[in-house]
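Notebook, p. 212. Picked up where the previous page left off. The plan for this session was modest: take the two constructs that came back from the sequencing core last week, fold each one, and keep the raw output in the notebook itself so nobody has to go hunting through shared drives later. Recording the first one now, exactly as returned: residue sequence, then the structure token string.
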Amino acid sequence: MYLSRYILGKETASTEGAAMPKVKILVWGYRCERCQHEWVPRAEEEPRVCPKCKSPYWNKPRKTNEKPQTPSKSQLKMAE
């Protein structure tokens, strides 16, 4: 049907004047902790990798290398 519409170059009777109502649908999905990509899964099981960045650690937050800020000796002398 769609192919014939493009080949003939005109609208068919079934699509003429037919308006599809828009409906907001809420579904559960996943979000990658690495790249923040959001997607709706195809299957019920948990995905192995993020479909965008391909990270197998998509569900684990990235560890930071930041160390707790400790004042240096010079900063301690200035505070006295």
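Okay, moving on. Second construct, recorded in the same format:
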Amino acid sequence: MPDLDKIKMMIDVTTMAQDEAHDRREKKRKEEQLAEDTFKVLTGNRDLRLGDISKEDFQAFEMVRSSGLYNMWSPEALQLTELGRKLYSAVMKFYGELNEQWPDVRNG
């Protein structure tokens, strides 16, 4: 004879796990949207190019980031780099590509 209480409990546990997974996906989606919206505000919604960023620009950004003292989305971090909003935002947008282009900056 099937244990109905056990079956119900397993269904409830599975439902809770699915709900938690959905909540995590939704949270991640909202965080990504917030980052995208923040980027658009910082850049004035203009297209930026990787080629606009010099190695020295990336070094300034990386010095502040690697200090660990600032959230890189904070106005204080932006100000300390002395890059200006548009260039700072471009560095944030192309951070991975810049690391590949100049690996010595992050590792040096």
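Notes on construct two before I forget. The helical segments are 4-43, 55-67, 75-81, 85-93, 95-101, 103-107.
Flagging for discussion at group meeting.
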